[in-house]
Amino acid sequence: MRHILKIHRSLLDPIPTQTHSYTIRTFDPAKDKEAWLSLNNKIFAHHPDQGDWAIQDLETRINEPWFDPQGFFLAVEKETILGFCWTKIHDDLTNHEPVGELYVVGVDPEHTQKGIARATSIAALNYLTAKGLKHAMLYVDADNVKGLGLYTKLGFN
What is the topology classification, in CATH, of domain 4-153? Predict the structure, then answer.
């Protein structure tokens, strides 16, 4: 049985920094859809929610009112997408301030353990802070040891 955790962090606390050799840029729907979709399906090949997407799955999310390409960060090397962190802002909560979500974080399996997820997540946290948000959250599978390790180091609990 799948167990999903919802973890949080304050965006008022310092956000870690990191040096890296990747170019971090935002998603361009006009040029990145196919490459991103291919990488997403490679990363999440066995994931029940995120894997096996068709272009329409991506288009559906791009057409959601919450979609902002400026909050969708790609780590690229020579124009090849190596990883990403896609954010989502929940600003329609009743009796709660808006919350930023690290919606999807992924790294090409051939490039893991190189700080890519950390670099894109830090860019995402800085983006959410610049938007004036005070809180961030994400959902993660309880058995995702690597993900939980990263998120803990980024201040989530």
Answer: Aminopeptidase (3.40.630)
Given a contact cutoff of 8 angstroms between Cβ atoms, the answer to whether 83 and 108 are in contact is yes
Q: What is the per-residue pLDDT across 99-138, written as a single tens digit (0 to 9) for each?
A: 999 999 999 999 999 999 999 999 999 999 999 999 999 9
Domain ranges of the chain: 4-153
Q: Which residues of the chain have pLDDT under 70?
A: none
- SS3 (DSSP) at 89: strand
φ and ψ at residue 127, rounded to 5 degrees: -60, -45
User: Across-strand partners of 8?
Assistant: 137
Alpha helices (H) in the chain, listed in sequence order: 29-43, 55-62, 116-130, 145-153
Q: Cβ contacts of residue 34 below 8 Å, gap of 6+? A: 55
Q: What pLDDT is recorded for position 25?
A: 98
pLDDT score for 95? 79
SS3 of residue 71 by DSSP: helix
Q: Phi, psi at residue 90, to the nearest 5°?
A: -95, 100
Report the C-alpha gap between 73 and 61 in whole angstroms: 15
